[in-house]
Amino acid sequence: ERVAESSGIFQQEVPRMLLWPCSRDDLTGGGDEPKRKFDLRALAFFGPGRRCWACRRFWVRVAGTSYDTGNMSREVHCTNLSVKEAAAQGEEVEALPDSSMGDLTSKVSFNLVKAMGIIASKVAGSLPTEGRYQYFGFDFILDQDLQPWVLEANSTPHLTRCNRGSCSGQVDDVLKDLIENVMEPVLGLPHGKAEIVGGVEDPKSLWNLAWDRDRF
Questions:
Q1: Which residues of 185-206 are buried (b: 16+ CB within 10 A; e: fewer)?
Q2: DSSP for 67-122?
Q3: Which residues of the chain, if any, have pLDDT below 50?
C-alpha cells in the first residue's frame, strides 16, 4: 500500500561505486571534490545466430546533482538524461563522449565489451535464431576497480542525446560501421573490416565479436 501511494528508486548500491568526475586518483581513494553518480551507455548487436557484437565506443551520462546517500531525489540517483533535462528548464542536455574518461577510456571499453560477451553467454537460450537480429543498449555503473555492473538492457535504446553536443555524429558513425563491417558481410556483400577478436581491441572496426557460441 505504501508503494502505491508514492514513487521511489529501487536499485542495489554498487560496492565502491565510482563517481564523476573520475581519474586514476579516484581508483586509489584520491580526490575530494563533490562527485556525481554516472552510468555508461554501451551498444550490442545480437546475430546472426547466437553471436554478440559489442561496440567499443560508449557514452557517459551524469546525474544532475552531487551524490548524497541521504538525498533520494531523482536528480541525485537517476543518470537518465531525460531526468536531468526535465530539471534543466530548457537547457540542452547530452551525454559525454567516452574520451571524457581520459586515460581510463581504453580499460573501461575493454571491460564493457567483455561484460556484454558474458551477458550474451548467459542468455544464449534467448538469443535470436538464424536470420534474426536484435540491437540493445546496455546501461552500466562502474566500481573503483573499473568493473561494470549492469543496470538494464534496452531493446529500443534512445540515442538522441548520445549524438549531439560533444558527441555529435558519434552514433551515426557507430551505426554506419555496424552496417558496413558486420551486416553487409552477413548479407553476402563485400567483406567488411570487423574481425573476430573476442573482446580484444581491434582498430579496424568499432565493433568486436564479444561472444560466439561456436567459437568462445
A1: eeeeeeebebeeebbeebeebb
A2: --TT---HHHH---HHHHHHTTTT-----EEGGGGGGGHHHHHHHHHHHHHHHHHH
A3: 1-4, 195-201
